[in-house]
Amino acid sequence: MLHIVNKSHRQTTSLASCLRLALPGQALLLTEDAVYAATASAAAESGIAAAAQKLKVYALRPDLEARGMGGRLAPGVTPVDYAGFVDLVAEHSSNQSWL
């Protein structure tokens, strides 16, 4: 399963809910303001640091760059472009968008 979160961990509890229910080996894609959670300075607070131990964590590169976060990713987070986003959706038989 591919989990997709687009809201900041400081705006909603969507990311926390996703991380609580995601199973080991599943994938998480952070888009829009959710990419803030993938930065080295926020990874512990947001739960991404721990999640990267059990999930494949990705962040949408254009959203990182638009927010000036391109060079600030936490270890274990892989940046992907739009083509990579499409590949992730095609690779996973189901996806869940967390609103």
Summarize this structure briefly.
The chain has 99 residues and is of the alpha/beta class.
Commentary on this structure:
This protein is of the alpha/beta class. The protein has one domain (2-98): 3-Layer(aba) Sandwich (Hypothetical Protein Ychn, Chain: A). Helices cover 32% and strands 21% of the residues. It has 5 helices and 5 strands; from the N terminus they run E-H-E-H-H-E-H-E-H-E. The protein has helices spanning 14-21, 43-46, 48-51, 61-66, 82-91; strands at 2-5, 27-30, 56-60, 77-80, 95-98. Strands 4-3-2-1-5 form a 5-stranded parallel sheet. The longest helix has 10 residues, at 82-91. The chain is globular, with a radius of gyration of 12 Å. The two termini are 16 Å apart.
- What would the average pLDDT be, to the nearest integer? 96
Provide the succession of SSEs: EHEHHEHEHE
Query: What is the CATH topology classification name?
Result: Hypothetical Protein Ychn, Chain: A
In the sheet with the most strands, the strands line up as 4-3-2-1-5
Q: Please give the CATH architecture.
A: 3-Layer(aba) Sandwich
